């Protein structure tokens, strides 16, 4: 049987020898592998880790063995019927969406749509999402998704602080907010000097006299539905901004936050067809009133036009604002939950406004029916007005009732406290289950019941929604499964993903997401579990989490790992908060200075600011390394206040820095901690470990090194790993099933994600990857990735200078090609090359990061030599085309490069009046004739889109 690693790694041994020969490395005496021969020339000997080094990873399993082990873990989870609520609900994922989106590599292997011409399908799906959110919340603009509801609430709090003209640091929080949201708000507020004041808003408690913002839960965690208009008006009179966390399904029946006067709405779209997955991933949302759209964090999809003046979608405004503003950034979020946002938007497209309203009406009617049966049984139901959630007073007997429901009927109720039970109804709730719950409270043992349309609910008449929503034709046109299937297929065909070809993006590691790794995420035993289910129901999940934590600790050289952060940016923040907590515990309140190299990823500086630190920039030398002299000078200047150094290893410039041990030692000698960004771990795994480099804490990108797919810009998982002295300060959670983690560590740090284990529903992917690769496979994958990058660098060096290399002239897993000499000689820009690559059938590498005018290329270990050579040949051909422009063969303003990409319509409709041929445009190499990818739009005018911000579905007439 072929080992999984041999399936995952694209280059064979024979191909690797061919590539090594191009690097001038010939076969040795056979004492080391071909890839080790390269790695010894690339990785500094001072950090080298031998293959024989001890590892706790089990021997690699076959695909069948890994699936069998996952089945065994899944069997230890009990899929009871959750009525826990708190933002997580049962939902029916339409099979047409599960099969054609969630399980479709055309959607889950796509990258963030930074090249909009080849991302029109998912950009349309995201603009559907934005339209859905904006119209349901009654606000003017929504972004393309947030990480979850609680982090969206934290971003809303920070936005309110920016938007308010009041100098106060006080933020009032609804006493009836979700407990996980309160906990996360407390974590985020403490780091940046915000004072939280909990207020019983529905009970009439007065707001603080001096405040910059208010947070309202609508409906409340208790289920209560009330009119917050007076509170909102009072807040506005005081100059405060109001953030409302709203249930989107409830908003199909209830007055919208916008109608109530809210400035910002946040929440989750989980119940729009996305499984609970033990906490995620789910698409959070944020929408704002007019005037705040340029304050929105995260990604925003807008409408622009292409070179022919036709409407086209693209990312707008603050996209990756961290790279531009760095320590002045207002958010560290550089990702979204695109795959889940697409699912939620398709749920709305499939059901339409009538279907959503029907689901909501049935849910509300079931909740009212349950209330009637409970009251009939003598139960004390707390609120008269509610949507889907009831709170029941049972003095001293809450745990007893919850246990009876679980043991007797397999139903999970929420124990609010010793005297109170919470019960949430959703679209999957049956009347039989309502009857069973009523019986727990002493209701009738036998009933005769049926189904009735238009059953009453318990919503206040004055708060019923009167305005229309989801009026765009897209929400009315795809009711049959045939139509829906074809719509999603049409969108997928407009996109470029890994199922079409290589995505050679530096910094982003677009590696294979193997089908076996993906298989388990839709199993009900993983997908159908509530994040706050009792520990007895999730033994398999907790075992999988323990194993993955231990494996990640082993391969990184750390002692403890938290899987809670649900994005790399949140892992960064969690690591810095751990450092902050450590210094505070030692009485070193003054240690707030964070040293960050000038080349660092922009989220580093943004995360430092959000952790309450002051950024001090450290220079880099001409080779792209940290300037050791400048580092020592900055350490000396800030010795008393030094908190941390943040570095990326290998560096952001794609090289292994030889001075890394000296760098970390210098920081430690001054009393600081070392944060090593794990973005480039794919170039290190198996050959060196962060913990051995002097790292105290790191975040890891499971959506890069550990095979979780990018999904068009999310989901992501960003675990944080730390040495033992920082372990107590890693993220905790008030609703976690247990406090202990792998290695016996207990975490007591603040909450960084809504769920205890973040996006746990996709952890089986990384578990399967590590389990099937084993230590040897992970090491081989690293070497294969580094070999491919060096092969590309060597073959393209005669045509495009490689900007940075290590001491032996080698790069790590990525190389930076300098296109500035090409621009100066020919006028052809990095944008022209990127767009021309589309005509050759490629997604462009990373543009102008970390250096303007460059392309950062990362081939990953998944690509075979044929695809790598195809990319190299395309880049060489593009250089020859640029030379043709320089020589005068083609005019500077009319050539295949400046007009790229070329659509079929541009080639076939009308007269051809260009200085080059149609064949030059469409088929620059003959191999494209057999399988051409045709971009749906021509080059998009980015500036036009920013000047004319449109962030909702344009009318059909716009495409006529």
Automatic annotation (TrEMBL):
GO terms for molecular function: glycine binding; glycine dehydrogenase (decarboxylating) activity; pyridoxal phosphate binding. Its EC number is 1.4.4.2. The gene is gcvP. The modification N6-(pyridoxal phosphate)lysine is found at residue 704. The keyword Oxidoreductase applies. Residues 781-902 form the Glycine dehydrogenase C-terminal domain. Keywords: Oxidoreductase, Pyridoxal phosphate. It is an enzyme of class 1 (oxidoreductase). One of its GO terms (cellular component) is glycine cleavage complex. Transmembrane segments: none annotated. Pfam families: GcvP2_C (PF21478), GDC-P (PF02347). NCBIfam families: gcvP, PRK04366.1. This is Glycine dehydrogenase (decarboxylating). The glycine cleavage system catalyzes the degradation of glycine. The P protein binds the alpha-amino group of glycine through its pyridoxal phosphate cofactor; CO(2) is released and the remaining methylamine moiety is then transferred to the lipoamide cofactor of the H protein. Its cofactor is pyridoxal 5'-phosphate. GO terms for biological process: glycine decarboxylation via glycine cleavage system. It comes from the Bacteria. Coiled coil: none annotated. Belongs to the GcvP family. The keyword Oxidoreductase applies. It catalyses: N(6)-[(R)-lipoyl]-L-lysyl-[glycine-cleavage complex H protein] + glycine + H(+) = N(6)-[(R)-S(8)-aminomethyldihydrolipoyl]-L-lysyl-[glycine-cleavage complex H protein] + CO2. Residues 6-441 form the Glycine cleavage system P-protein N-terminal domain. The glycine cleavage system is composed of four proteins: P, T, L and H.
């Amino acid at each position: 049987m072929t080992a999984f690693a041999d399936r995952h790694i694209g280059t064979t041994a024979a191909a690797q020898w061919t590539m090594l020969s191009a690097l001038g490395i010939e076969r040795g005496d056979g004492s080391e592998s071909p890839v080790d021969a390269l790695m010894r020339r690339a990785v500094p000997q001072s950090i080298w880790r031998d293959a024989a080094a001890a590892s706790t990873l089990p021997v690699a399993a076959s695909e069948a063995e890994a699936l069998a082990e996952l089945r065994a873990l899944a069997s230890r989870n009990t899929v009871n019927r959750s009525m826990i609520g708190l933002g997580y609900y049962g939902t029916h994922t339409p099979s047409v969406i599960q099969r054609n989106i969630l399980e479709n590599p055309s959607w889950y292997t796509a990258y963030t749509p930074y090249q909009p011409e080849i991302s029109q399908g998912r950009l349309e799906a995201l603009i559907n999402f934005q339209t859905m959110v904006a119209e349901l919340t009654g606000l003017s603009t929504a972004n393309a998704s947030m990480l979850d509801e609680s982090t969206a609430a934290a971003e809303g709090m920070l936005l309110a602080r920016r938007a308010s003209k009041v100098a106060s640091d006080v933020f009032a929080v609804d006493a009836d907010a979700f407990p996980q949201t309160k906990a996360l708000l407390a974590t985020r507020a403490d780091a940046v000097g915000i004072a939280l004041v909990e207020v019983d808003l529905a009970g009439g408690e007065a707001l603080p006299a001096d405040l910059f913002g208010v947070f309202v839960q609508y409906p409340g965690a208790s289920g209560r539905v009330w009119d917050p208009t007076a509170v909102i008006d009072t807040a506005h009179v005081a100059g405060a901004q109001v953030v409302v966390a709203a249930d989107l399904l409830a908003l199909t029946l209830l007055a919208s936050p916008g109608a109530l006067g809210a400035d910002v709405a946040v929440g989750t779209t989980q119940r729009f067809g996305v499984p609970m997955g033990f906490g995620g991933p789910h698409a959070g949302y944020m929408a704002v009133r007019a005037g705040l759209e340029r304050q929105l964090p995260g990604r925003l999809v807008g409408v622009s036009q292409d070179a022919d003046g036709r409407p086209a979608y693209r990312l707008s405004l603050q996209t990756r604002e961290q790279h531009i503003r760095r320590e002045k950034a207002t958010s560290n979020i550089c990702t979204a939950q695109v795959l889940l946002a697409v699912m939620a938007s398709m749920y709305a497209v499939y059901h339409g406004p009538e279907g959503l309203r029907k689901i909501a009406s049935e849910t509300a009617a079931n909740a009212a029916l349950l209330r009637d049966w409970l009251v009939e049984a003598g139960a004390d139901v707390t609120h008269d007005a509610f949507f889907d959630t009831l709170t029941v007073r049972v003095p001293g007997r809450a745990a007893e009732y919850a246990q009876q429901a679980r043991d007797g009927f397999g139903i999970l109720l929420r124990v609010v406290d010793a005297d109170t039970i919470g019960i949430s109804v959703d679209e999957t709730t049956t009347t039989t289950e309502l009857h069973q719950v009523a019986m727990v409270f002493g209701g009738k043992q036998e009933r005769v019941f049926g189904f009735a349309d238009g059953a009453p609910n318990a919503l206040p008449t004055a708060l019923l929604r009167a305005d229309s929503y989801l009026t765009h034709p897209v929400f009315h046109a795809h009711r049959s499964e045939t139509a829906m299937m074809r719509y999603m297929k049409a969108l997928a065909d407009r996109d470029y993903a890994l199922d079409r070809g290589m995505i050679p993006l530096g910094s982003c590691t677009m590696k294979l997401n193997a089908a076996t790794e993906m298989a388990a995420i839709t199993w009900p035993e993983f997908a159908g579990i509530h994040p706050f289910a009792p520990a007895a129901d999730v033994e398999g999940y907790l075992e999988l989490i323990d194993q993955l934590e231990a494996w990640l600790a082993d391969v990184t050289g750390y002692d403890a790992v938290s899987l809670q952060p649900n994005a790399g940016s949140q892992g960064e923040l969690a690591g810095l908060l751990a450092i902050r907590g450590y210094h505070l515990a030692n009485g070193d309140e003054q240690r707030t200075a964070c040293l960050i190299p000038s080349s660092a990823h922009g989220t580093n500086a943004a995360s430092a600011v959000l952790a309450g630190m002051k950024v001090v920039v450290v220079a880099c030398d001409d080779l792209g390394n940290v300037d050791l002299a400048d580092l020592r000078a900055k350490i000396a200047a800030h010795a008393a206040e030094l908190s941390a150094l943040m570095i990326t290893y290998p560096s952001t410039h794609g090289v292994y820095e030889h001075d890394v041990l000296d760098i970390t030692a210098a920081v430690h000698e001054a009393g600081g901690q070392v944060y090593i960004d794990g973005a480039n771990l794919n170039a290190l795994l198996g050959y060196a470990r962060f913990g051995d480099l002097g790292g105290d804490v790191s975040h890891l990108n499971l959506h890069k090194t550990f095979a979780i797919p990018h999904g068009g810009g999310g989901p992501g998982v960003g675990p944080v790993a730390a040495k033992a002295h920082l372990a107590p300060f890693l993220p905790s959670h008030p609703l976690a099933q247990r406090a202990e983690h792998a290695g016996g560590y207990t975490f007591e740090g603040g909450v960084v994600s809504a769920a205890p284990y973040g996006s746990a529903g996709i952890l089986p992917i990384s578990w399967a990857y590590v389990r099937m690769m084993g230590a040897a496979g992970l090491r081989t994958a690293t070497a294969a990735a580094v070999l491919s990058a060096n092969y590309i660098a060597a073959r393209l060096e005669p045509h495009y200078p490689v900007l940075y290399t290590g001491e032996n002239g080698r790069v790590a897993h990525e190389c930076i090609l300098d296109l500035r000499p090409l621009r100066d000689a020919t006028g052809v820009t990095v944008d022209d090359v990127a767009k021309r690559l589309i005509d050759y059938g490629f997604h462009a590498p990373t543009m102008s990061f970390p250096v303007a005018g460059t392309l950062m290329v990362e081939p990953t270990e998944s690509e075979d030599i044929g695809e790598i050579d195809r990319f190299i040949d395309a880049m060489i051909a593009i250089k020859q085309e640029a030379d043709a422009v320089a020589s005068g063969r083609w005019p500077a303003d009319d050539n295949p490069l400046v007009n790229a990409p070329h659509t079929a319509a541009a080639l076939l409709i009308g007269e051809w009046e260009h200085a080059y041929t149609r064949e030059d445009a469409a088929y620059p190499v003959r191999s494209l004739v057999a399988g051409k990818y045709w971009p749906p739009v021509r080059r998009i005018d980015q500036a036009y889109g920013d000047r004319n911000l449109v962030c909702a579905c344009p009318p059909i007439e716009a495409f006529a």
